[in-house]
Design goal:
Blueprint (H helix, E strand, L loop, with lengths): L2 E5 L2 E4 L4 E8 L8 E6 L6 E6 L6 E3 L7 E6 L4 E6 L8 E7 L17 E2 L3 E6 L1
């Protein structure tokens, strides 16, 4: 049973930083692509970033490129999202997710591409 648990959300002022973590269990973490999504109130869940199983295989949504950094530590079965220069429009519940098939690359993912989801962690950026 694949389980994903996010942590690290909170309240921060505009221009500040937060680091989200996603702890995975239930299968060989290093073989699977992972991704971050977010959902703001009244909006659809949207793709934020993805990291493939290959080292250096990373893809970002344009809205976060240059401000957010996705990474993974396969020894700890954990994925991270370092968020800098936060803006009020980054306010959302952030979810980590992963595919059901291994060897995925870094690309734009839709919700339908992902088989497993965490419970989400709230990020609130005040102006």
């Amino acid at each position: 049973q694949v389980q994903l648990v996010e942590s690290g959300g909170g309240l921060v002022q505009a221009g500040g930083s937060l680091r989200l973590s996603c702890a995975a269990s239930g299968r060989t973490f290093s073989s699977y692509a992972m991704g971050w999504f977010r959902q703001a109130p009244g909006k659809e869940r949207e793709f934020v970033a993805a990291i493939g199983w290959k080292i250096g295989s990373i893809y970002y949504a344009d809205s976060v490129k240059g401000r957010f950094t996705i990474s993974r530590d396969n020894a700890k079965n954990t994925m991270y999202l370092q968020m800098n220069s936060l803006k009020p429009e980054d306010t959302a519940v952030y979810y980590c997710a992963t595919e059901s098939r291994p060897w995925g690359g870094s690309r734009y993912y839709t919700q339908q591409d992902m088989a497993y989801w965490g419970q989400g962690t709230q990020v609130t950026v005040s102006s």
